[in-house]
Amino acid sequence: MKISVQLPILTILLTLVSVMSCNAQIQRDVRSKRSIEVIFNNKLNAKDLDNIRHELWQYGIILNYDSREFDKKDRLMSLKFNVDCKDGFSGSAEKSGLTKDSRFGFFRDYFADATYAKPAFGTGEIE
After folding, report:
1. d(CA 86, CA 113)
2. pTM of the model
3. What is the rounded average pLDDT for all residues in the chain?
């Protein structure tokens, strides 16, 4: 059974609950600690970034913003971040010229299987 609920800041995708937002995306299968995906674009503002960092902290993931720039309407234009999943996976990325369609961020797949050549962690442009 899938239930959709609108959140103004970020999206959390759970096994049974799908939550959608156009601002940022955090995907997480809480029951099995399966995967997380965070996408940054210029629909986000400073408060959104703080909320994303707090949400990830609740999952035990440390996200720090080394630099961030906003336009006159407080929309994210560039970002440099570093992330530590506290399980041996960490990384950083930076991008300027973010747009509403940007797919820049990071992911952590807790069930990545090398037999299928699926990466367990990545930062930067997300496919």
Report:
1. 19
2. 0.73
3. 79
